[in-house]
Amino acid sequence: MKDKLSKGKIVKIKEVKVGGNKPIIIAGPCSIESREHIVDEALSLKEIGVDILRGGAFKPRTSPFDFQGLGFEAVKYLKEASEKSNLPIVTEVLSEEHVEKMKDYVDAFQIGSRNMYNYALLKKVGKTMKPIILKRGFSATIREWEMAAKYIEAEGNENIIFCERGIRTFETELRNTLDLAGAYLLKEKTGYPVIVDPSHGTGKRELIFPMVKAVLALGLDAVMIEVHPNPDEAMSDAAQTIDYKTYEKIAKYVGEFNENRI
């Protein structure tokens, strides 16, 4: 028996459906570190099982001294990885001037937490009619998150996917507090696909698999996971990045979940 959330809207990223009754996996490195890195990872994840490849090219970091990404060169590498693996790709866009330059390279734009309130950028990506993964601002209320999507909608673009990535609370044991109740509520309220990023949502790699199980139990539409062949050596967000072995367990779990779902 299908739950009522499965009746929501479906957004297609190339041929991959986000929404409906089959949760998917979006995975890849936090940051693209080189051409070889992202091509090799794309082929590895393709073999294990993944639906959409993610990778950071422009990385807004709290500290200006941390790795900021390889910029547009990384977007080109991601496109090459997509072509070699036959996977759709998504990456974050940081500014209005990057939108036109990137739109022919990516299959979906991601709006990061820091840019959820950047309404000019939301309007700009809205005009492209491409799928938009809209991450929740780390201090945003559910209503503010929903209203940010209205800026994209107002441009005639309803290819919107909400992404819960944790919010900042008084809690210090975790990087963020993953608001699964809020994600469920927004899905029920808007009907748009809602996905969850347990990597940023917890900041701890050992919590990612349990949160994936919770996301699937709630009937949400996808998980976005940070993966690296050698997580401790990752150039950004190492503590919340999993290795291929752990990812394979998650991919198997999601696959079995979909097979058993009526």
From TrEMBL:
GO biological process entries = aromatic amino acid family biosynthetic process
Q: Name one GO molecular function term.
A: aldehyde-lyase activity
| Ranges where the DAHP synthetase I/KDSA domain occurs | 13-258
Question: Which InterPro entries does the record cross-reference, listed alphabetically?
Answer: Aldolase_TIM, Class-I_DAHP_synthase, DAHP1/KDSA, DAHP_syn_2
Q: What is its EC number?
A: 2.5.1.54
Question: Quick check: keyword Nucleotide-binding in the entry?
Answer: no
Q: Which Gene3D superfamilies match?
A: Aldolase class I
- Which SUPFAM superfamilies would you find in this protein's record? Aldolase (SSF51569)
User: What are the UniProt keywords, alphabetically?
Assistant: Transferase
Under what name is this protein listed?
3-deoxy-7-phosphoheptulonate synthase
